[in-house]
Records
---
Amino acid sequence: MTTAEPALPVLPMERLVLWRHGRTEWNATGRFQGQLDPPLDAEGRSQAARVAPELAADLPAGQTTVVSSDLSRAAETAASLTAVLGVQLRLDPRLREHGMGLWEGLTRDEVAERYPEQYADWVAGRAVEGRGGEHPAEVAARALAALVELPPSPVTVVVTHGGTAGRLMERLLLLGPEHRRVFGPLGNCAWTELAHQGGRWRVMRHNSAVSRRTGARDAVTAASAPVGDAEAVA
């Protein structure tokens, strides 16, 4: 943790599942979404339907809190899980994706052509200056503030976005800017689980997914996303 960062607050859960939304057409075509709101495509809805029962099987019945970004791609994904669990879905705009300023709505190739220096910083995992939007620390701070206000529960599932999940995980693990992208990006509808043990947060599993072919739990590797894709074309 850097000296500029405040101490972590006590969160009202012992297990935290960060679940990324299903695929959108913009994900499939490599277009930056940020805080714009394209919906799930047919594959994204299918992903959510496949994953929700598998994810629910590991969650305590009636004792799980589910909170989601209010952007439609996350909220629709989250609704597939709350329908299985029979619990209330909470929506919080503080869990929206990393605001990406000038990049939102552009493809990777368009960003690389128009803003080559910014793009190089992004690929390298550095903070991107000059594009507008949000600083990574701001994303982590707002997402963490949303979690602090949740009711106590053994497990909380946070349905969010690639960039926001990454920044929140880095903050919980006390990773400074020099350690950004230590973890590979979450695939669409993949999840990461953290547990609070011994006074700190630990990663118990990362990038878990459900195979489209077999329906069995699988692992998504960093090779499934383009190089530099920590926000996974957020």
---
Amino acid sequence: MPRPRCKSNIGFFPQVTYFKPAGVRLGEIEEVVLHHDELEAIRLKDLLGIPQEEAAKQMNVSQPTFHRLLLSAHEKMAHAVVNGKALRIEGGNVTIDERFTPPCGWRHMCRHGWKEKLVSQKGDAFPNKEGKQGGIMKIAITSVDGTLDGIVDERFGRSRKLIIYDSESKNHEVVDNEKNMNSPQGAGIQSAQNVVNSGAGAVISGHLGPNAFRVLQTAGVDVYTASSMTVTQAIQAYEQGKLAKLAGPDVSGHW
């Protein structure tokens, strides 16, 4: 008797689960079934750009299993597109882990009803996530020493500390980001994932590379730049609407 497989963690259930070629009747078309765990592997690796080791940890699977899911997903999607088959998303041995981000940004989520669905199930599932510069939300600020009087760290991915500040309660907590300082690769992505997991809706830092910016943008986290300021000064400037908002990465990768 085969050993039962452990369930894979997935961070979302897609709103759209069926894709078909235009101009072909449903009764005449063949289908390819893409499982939810295969789609999650695509989301984490190809959309968010998360390194395979970290993506496998998020899904609670081994790296070889994650690699097999990714290869299977690529093969199925290529088969459907090249051969004109419909793609149906269903099945898979999975469990939903809502700590991780859906495939679209938070703004799109709200429009598509994802947030409303989770709130109806669990209460306020994403507190302090909405707002604009100066509004009520959690803010993540890169810090050189983890104090409000310390300087904002110019490097996002390799910052020593992250300060998560609640602009409603005026309380803050410190997240240790030091293990990413000397990481040979993926530092920006992991730091961005730390921000997303904290529930912050905005980031204040010096500069961001393309991978980190892509993860934050996908999660709907706004990014603001602050230079030569203390964390307190940066928070005050944010609350007064004086910080510049980044529309894209402003440094190359591995900066």
